Amino acid sequence: MIKLLNVLYSNIRICAHSTSQMAHKVFVYGTLKRNEPNHHWLTKPENGTSKFVAEGTTKSKYPLIIATRYNIPFLLHSPGDGNHVKGEIYEVNDLMLSKLDILEDHPNYYVREIDDITVTKGNDTETQKCWVYFLKKFKPELLQRPAMDNYTSRGSHGLVYMESNNESTVDDLDDVVRK
Fold first, then answer.
1. 168: pLDDT strictly greater than 50
2. Residue whose C-alpha is closest to residue 57's, from 27, 36, 30
3. How far apart, in Å, are the Cα atoms of 95 and each of 15, 48, 61, 144, 173?
4. Is the separation of the CB atoms in 41 and 109 below 8 Å?
């Protein structure tokens, strides 16, 4: 009996450890979505683990724009402007969150913040708290760019995302970031 209890306790600890490792929900709206150029970041085992949870939409409106010579999608932190932005929610572990922080250059350019994301399942709607990467220090003229509600790299906007092959530098973001 004691042996059985030890095995059960061990399994409970393993489950609790696994659950705590997948403690972060992240809302992605650009190149990290399925069928987009950077989705592979969410699937590489060396980056950690991620699990698709649901499609969702920002509860607040934000401008989702495309800028830089690489046609990067940016979610500008300007609540009330733009659209309710569609994206995907992923549950990620600590390692994956740290890798996403590197990809998004948090907190130097994008800033990761908790925001409300609306998820509709059948007739039910619920709000989930998720990490979202925002561009907070942006040049005001970016608000004049067309705002989208749903990004796709090969959309009708004609601004295909171009991977930089590690050639991009911080200077590439100078046309969007307010110093």
1. no
2. 27
3. 18, 5, 30, 36, 26
4. no
Among 85, 142, 78, 133, smallest CA distance to 110 is for: 133
Instruction: Compute the distance between CA of residue 158 and CA of residue 179 in angstroms, rounded to an integer.
Output: 29
CA distances from 92 to 7, 10, 45, 50, 152 (A): 27, 23, 12, 4, 22
Three-state secondary structure string covering 144-179 = HCCCECCCCCCCCCCCCCCCCCCCCCHHHHCCCECC
Task: Output the CA angle 30-34-31, nearest 5 degrees.
Answer: 25
If you average pLDDT over every residue of the chain, what do you get?
85
Determine the Cα–Cα distance for residues 20 and 15; give it in Å rounded to an integer. Answer: 9
Amino acid (one-letter) located at 38? N
Q: What is the pLDDT of residues 94-109, one digit of tens each?
A: 999 999 999 999 999 8
167 is catalytic: no
Share of the chain above pLDDT 70, in %: 80
One of 36, 88, 91, 104 is an active-site residue; which one? 104
3-state SS class at 39:
helix
Could you tell me if 48 and 18 are in contact, meaning their C-beta atoms sit under 8 angstroms apart? no
